[in-house]
Amino acid sequence: MKQPGTFRLALGALALAALLPLTASAQAFVGGRPPGGNGLKVGNGRLHPTLELETRLDSGVGYFREAGTGPLSPDLSGELALHVRPGLMLDVPSPKLAVALRGNLDYVAYTGLLTAGSGAASHLEGAADLALRFNQESELSFEVGDELTRSDRTRTAALGAGILSLFNEARVKAQWKPGGGALEVTPALAYAMEFFEPLGGMTPIGCTDAACDPLAASQFNYGNLRLGAEGRWRFLPKTAVVVDTGLQYRGYFNDTTTPSAAILHAMAGVSGLISPRITLTAKAGWSQNLGSGGGGTVVGQVEGTYLVGPSLTVKGGYLRAFQPVAAYGTFRDDRVYAEGRTVMGSRLALHATGALDFLSFAGGRGDTLVTLDLGPEYQIRPWLVGAVGYMLGTRSSSLGAAGLNYTRHEGYARVSVSY
Questions:
Q1: How far apart are CA 77 and CA 59, in angstroms?
Q2: Cβ pair 149, 317 in contact under 8 A
Q3: pTM reported for the whole predicted model
Q4: CATH number of the domain where residue 247 is located
């Protein structure tokens, strides 16, 4: 598949970033840090090399012709994929300048055992994240960072399956805590870009809209500027009033039909402990598109966390968001979600997360998404962790194209080594 020049440059940046002292950040280890090993001393910090080997049986890799030249399958093709993820982690603590780097390269090899011809779509994925934190213990502190990800999980809700996404966001924010710290004000600025290319190189059957066609996805490459400020006032020791305001502008590099969006939002509410075991956040407000497409809606979030026991936490809530999106300009997301995590003994961790999203796009299109992720993770040795799991992704759309109506099952087994 031929890649645009911009995509090749950005992919090169990803490979370069992964050579820095970074590590895999996609999965958390038992206890939230790499197991065992002292790493390599770097200043006041430690550098931890890591390696993950994963086998994944995926029912929805992409769209391929049967036997390479046969008829196009109406459904996503399945495949057994092998993942090799070398990575690094570096943490250098300091009250003046703290450094946190995470990153990995992920080579995804399609075996061709289930779908002939899929091996040609084997590709490189990866993730990198950098955070530089200045004067963390001062009244006024700053953070500068950058996140870079290449994955087959696009952040653009309107697009269908079978797409590779390259996403990068540079960010800077400050935190001001005057007086004793009861008041916190956090202004932030971020600029993101996302580029797309097809995975498999075929148009799904029944697709007559650019949003469901992987071959047309690159027309929706975009830039997104976010300006925002959050405020928090603790009127009680463990309870605060929160205010969240911001403006984001979305423009498209190659698309002249999707209207640009400039969305202003403002929310306010409370957050804190309502009992020794229950934490609650509740905020609401309004989002308005100041761009030519117009539109606005009530937005908000209600989220609760319950500490069932010393090692079991359950979290759930409801979120309504109004965001810019490719092909339609804006969309509304009504999400119900839940998550549970527990540690049994000192080595076994279990997790289960699920969400139900109702997406409403400008122009009348509506989608429903169901996602599920569950499985155990076991620390075999201080430097060795094994994990198995199952992921479910189901999407149904008012548009009848196969690329927007599918069910994706994924089962995986992973071994993670860390020094």
A1: 6
A2: no
A3: 0.87
A4: 2.40.160
Give the CA angle between residues 371, 322, 336 to the nearest 5°.
30
Which domain covers residue 306, as residue numbers?
Answer: 38-416
Q: How far apart are CA 135 and CA 160, in angstroms?
A: 43
What are the E-state strand segments in 38-113?
40-42, 45-62, 77-92, 97-110
User: Residue 119 is encoded by which pair of tokens?
Assistant: 């091996």
Q: Three-class SS of residue 64? A: coil
Number of domains within the chain:
1
**Tens digit of pLDDT at every position of the chain (419 positions):** 334 444 444 444 444 443 333 333 333 333 344 444 578 988 889 999 999 999 999 998 877 765 445 545 556 788 999 999 999 999 999 999 999 999 999 999 999 888 887 888 899 999 999 999 999 989 999 999 999 999 998 999 999 888 999 999 999 999 999 977 899 999 999 999 999 998 876 777 777 788 888 888 999 999 999 999 999 999 988 999 999 999 999 999 998 889 999 999 999 999 999 999 999 999 999 999 999 889 999 999 999 999 998 899 999 999 999 999 999 999 999 999 999 999 998 899 999 999 999 999 998 999 999 999 999 999 999 899 999 999 999 999 998 877 788 899 999 999 999 98
Token pair, residue 143, equals 């953070």
Collapsing DSSP to helix, strand or coil, 134 comes out as strand
* Residue 58 domain flag: yes
Taking CA atoms, 189 is separated from 50, 132, 144, 169, 384, in Å, by 32, 15, 10, 10, 39
Cα(118)–Cα(162) distance, integer angstroms: 12
Query: How do 348-361 and 261-275 pair as beta strands?
Result: unpaired
What dihedral angle (degrees, nearest 10) is formed by the CA atoms of 157, 153, 186, 262? Answer: -30
C-beta separation of 106 from 86 below 8 A: no
User: Is residue 9 domain-resident?
Assistant: no
Query: By C-alpha distance, which of 147, 50, 33, 65 is closest to 105?
Result: 50
Which residue, among 254, 255, 198, 260, has the nearest Cα to 224 in the 3D structure?
A: 260
CB proximity list for 306: less than 8 A, separation 6 or greater? 277, 278, 313, 314, 315
Q: Is 251 helix (H, G, I), strand (E, B) or coil?
A: strand
